[in-house]
Amino acid sequence: MKVLLHYAAGPGLAARLNALPDLSLDIVPDADEAGFAAALPQAEVIWHVLRPLSAEDIAQAPRLRLIQKIGVGVNTIDLDAARARDIAVCNLPGTNARAVAELTLLLMLGALRRVAHFDAETRAGRGWAQPPGLQDSLFELGGRTVGLVGYGAIPALLAPVLAALGCRLLYTARAPKEAAAGQYRDLDALLAESDVVSLHIPETPATRGLIDAGAIARMKPGAVLVNTARGGLVDQAALVAALRSGHLAAAGLDVFAAEPVDPADPLLGLPNVVVTPHVAWLTTGTFNRSFRLAAENVRRLAAGEPLLHRVA
Question: Which residues are catalytic?
Answer without folding.
Answer: 230, 259, 278
